Amino acid sequence: MSQETFRPPQQARSRDTLRKVLKAAEKVLATGGIEEFTVAAVADHAGMSVGTIYRRFENKEQLLHAVKAEMLDQLETAVTQALAEAEPSLKGVTTAFTEAVAHTFGEHNKIFPELLSGQRAEGVELGLRSLAKIQDALVEAAEPYREGVHEEALRFAARSITGSCVHRAATCQVWPDGLTWTAWADETAEMALAYLTSPRI
């Protein structure tokens, strides 16, 4: 079994156990980083035996992959929901996109940097697929309002917003900017809109 697959839960009790394991894994990553991430540490935080986790995952790499998949799924869901509820304008969808990305990273700012660095090829591919999906979602949501704005500019804005968010999550502990994630999202959305509405675009 590869690290990207694991035994999916079939019953409600098993699904609850899996959620508990993933939450515990997030906690270990958030407090101790990748260096302290072990199956034993996750089991301790989850209040269960190591064997219970090994019945679902073959090793810690497979568990890490599952945590990453869960975080990226949360990111995709947050962006999709925010865009569906956005004010119907270029500013509305750009702001909604930026706020959704910032909110997700802000909730897990100690975890995402660990998951987005030093991963094997399949982990990198998983992340890139997810980032491509949210980029496509912004382009699709902005379609009715992007008169005079090239699709390439929207994709560049999406990549820049997301990349900036990744960078902030990775550096905010050692290089603070004095902003909350909400304030950061507002400033970043304004900057993206200035770029998108510039005559040269």
UniProtKB/TrEMBL annotation:
Keywords, in A-Z order: DNA-binding, Transcription, Transcription regulation
Pfam family name, one: TetR_N
SUPFAM superfamilies membership: Homeodomain-like
Domain of life: Bacteria
DNA-binding region, residue range(s): 38-57
GO molecular-function term, one example from the UniProt record: DNA-binding transcription factor activity
Domain HTH tetR-type: 15-75
KW Transcription (keyword) present: yes
InterPro entries registered for this protein in UniProt: Homeodomain-like_sf, HTH-type_TetR-like_transc_reg, HTH_TetR
Entry annotated with the keyword Transcription regulation: yes
Coiled-coil segments on the chain, per record: none
Name of this protein: TetR family transcriptional regulator
Taxonomic placement: Bacteria, Bacillati, Actinomycetota, Actinomycetes, Pseudonocardiales
